[in-house]
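Try it yourself: sequence plus magnesium ion, in.
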Amino acid sequence: MSEKPIAVLLIEDNADDAHEIRKMLGEGRGMPFAIECVDRLTTGLERLAAGGTDVVLLDLSGPDNHGLDALARIRAQAPHVPIIVLSSLDDEAVAVKAVREGAEDCLVKGQVDRNLLVRAIRYAIARKRTDDALRAAKDYAENLIDSSLDMIISVDVNRNIVEFNRAAEQVFGYTKAEVLGKPIDLLYADTSEGRQLHKNTQDGGFTGEVANKKKNGEIFYSYVSASVMRDATGAPVGVMGISRDITERKRAEEIIVRQAYHDALTNLANRRLFMDRLTQALTRVQWHKRLVSVLFLDLDHFKSINDALGHSVGDLLLQAVAERLTTCVRQGDTVARLGGDEFAIALADVARTSDIPKVAQKIIDTLSRPYVLEGRELFITTSIGVCIYPDDAQDAETLVKNADVAMYRAKKHGRNNYQHYSPDMNAQAFERLAIETSLRHALEREEFFLEYQPQVDIGTGRIIGYEALVRWRHPDLGVMPPGKFIPLAEESGLIVAIGEWVLRSACAQNRAWQTAGFPPIRVAVNVSPRQLRHESLLGAVGRALRETGLHPNWLELELTESIMQDADEAIRLLSQLQAIGVQIAIDDFGTGYSSLNHLKRYPIHKLKIDQSFVRDVTHDPHDRAIVTAIIALAHSLNLKAIAEGVETEEQLAYLRSLKCDEAQGYFLGRPMPAQNATKLLARVTA
Ligand code: C2E
Ligand code: MG
Ligand code: MG
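Structure, out:
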C-alpha cells in the first residue's frame, strides 16, 4: 500500500534552485512527495489558505519576503504547518533567528543533499505534530484547572506554591501572581496543621478538613484531597491538593449539633448536654475535694398560666425564666431546660456545702420578681430540689434523679422553696412514680371498679342507699384503695376523668337496680375538691344522669368541708347542683373547718359524721360530745345526720339514742362488688 504523498509547498523565486529541490525530492524512494512551487510569498499564502499543505520550504531571499517577516506571516496563516527555512548563506545567526521565530529547521542551500532534505522534512512534520499535541494538552489542562469549581493548589518539594487556580483566587482573595513561589503556610490558619497535612500526604495521600486563612485574615474550612506529584522517573516533584470551601457545610453542621444539644425555645443546654457537662464536672472535681451540685427546678403552677394565657405567653415566660436563671450562676456552671417547665442547674465547682443554699435562695428570689410580658404583669415561683456530689450521689444520673425527688418534696412543702435531698425521700418517690405512670393508663385499660357500701336508716334498719367507692385493680400491685391513688390523681388532674367515670358507673348501676325492680335507693358518689374547682363537674353530673336515665333525686354527692374555704364560690356551685336536683352531703364532717355561720347558707342535705369520732363514741366523752353536737347541729339546720365507720352494735345503739338518722360501717355491711350489693338488696327487700 503506497503512502499518501507529503504535500510540500516550496516558496522559491529562483527557478534553478526550485528545480534543484524538485529534483532532489522527486528522486526519493519510498517517500513520495507532491511538490508545488510558487515564486512569491503572497501566492504561497494563498495556497496555504486552501489547505492540504504538510510542510513549507521557504527561501528567505525572495523578492517580496525579505527577512523573517515572511515566517511570521506564514505561521499566522497556517500555524500547524511546519516551516523549513532555506538560506543562501551559512549564517548561524539567521538560522537561530529563524528557529526562534518558529521555523522547525534551517538549511543552507548548496549544502543540502537529498538525504538531508528528506530527513529534515520528516523530522519537521513529526516534531511539529508533537509540539502541537503537547501545547493542546497543556492548554486543555490549564483550562481544566482554571474552570474547576474546586480549588487546585500545588506546591513543589520545598512547599512553595506552583499552581493556584481561579477558584483558589476567588476563595483566598489572593491573585495567582501574589502567591506563586511563596510558601504554602501562607494559606493555613495553623501552620503546624499545614505541615502535618503535607507529611500525611507524603505518607500515602490525605483527605480531610483543614482550617485555611484568607488574604484578609478570615479563617475558613476546606475539604482537601491531596496527593504527591511525581515525574517520569517516579521521583516526587511536589504535592497537589484539590479542595473545596466547606464553611457553609460546617455552619450547617454546627447548627445541627447546636440543635442536638440545646433547647430550641430557651437556647439553654438540653438534657443531653447537661448530662455531658455534669459528667465532666464530676471527673474534674474528683481529685480536688470539691463539690458538684445539681439543682432541679420545677415552676409552680406553670400549667395554669399556660392554660389561662395561652402557650405563646407561656413560652415567653419560659424564655424570661431561662434568662434570669443564667444570671444566677457562674461561668462554668450549666443551666439546662429538661422539658416543659423543668430546669436543671449544675454547679460545677463548689467549695462548701453551705454555698449551695445561697444559690438556691438567690434563684428563688430572682425568679419571683414580677415579669412583664405582652404588657401584662405575671408572677411565678419555683420549687427546687438540691442534690450534692459526693454526699448524696456518685454519678450524674443519680444526682439528677435525687434532685428531682427533693424537688417533689419542695412542692409538698408548699412550693416556692428548696429542699436538700435525703435518702428516705427515695423510697416514697419510687412508689409514687410507678403509680403515677400506670395511673395514666388505668382508665383506658378499664382497671377501675366500684364497690358499694350500704347506708342504713337507723330507725327502720332499711337500706336507703349505697356509697360508691372506687378501687383500682393495678396490674402488678393488686387492688389498691383510693387513699393510695386519689391524691396522685388529684395532683395530676386525672381525677377529673376518673371522677366522671365514677359518676357515670354509679348512676348506671343505680338505674339498673331500679330497672330490676328494687325499691329506689340513693347512690352516693365522692367528689374531690379538685373536681369542684373544675367547671366541668356540672356538665359531668348532667351527662351521667342523662345518659343513664337516673332521676337526680337518687344521686347524692359527698363533698368535703374544704369547699367552704371559698364561701361565695361554694354557694354558687352548690346552688347550681341543687337546681339540677341532686342531693349534697358534707363528708368527713368535723375534721375540717366549717364556719357554722356559712353552713346555714349552704343548700345541703346531709352531714356525714367522720368515722374518727364514731370509733370511740361509746367510751370517749370528748368524741361523744362532738357527735352529739353534730347531730344537734344537723337537725337544727334541717339536715340529716349520718354516722360513718360504725363497726359495733354498741356504736349503733348509741347513735340511735342520739337520734342520728342514718349509719354506715362494717357492722352494717362492708364495701362490696356490685354483684354482692345486688344480692344484698334482693335479700332485704324479699
Ligand atoms: P370516705 O368517703 O369517707 O369513705 C369511707 C371510707 O371508710 C371508705 O374507705 C370505706 O371503705 C371506709 N369504711 C367504711 N366503713 C368503715 C368501718 O366501719 N370502719 C373503717 N375503719 N372504715 C370504714 P375507702 O373506700 O378506702 O375510701 C377512702 C376515701 O377515698 C373515701 O373516704 C373518699 O374520700 C375517697 N374515695 C373513695 N372513692 C372515691 C371516688 O370515687 N372519688 C373520690 N374523689 N374519692 C373517693
Ligand atoms: Mg365518702
Ligand atoms: Mg368519710
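One thing you can check immediately is this: Residues 67 and 296 are 98 Å apart (CA to CA).
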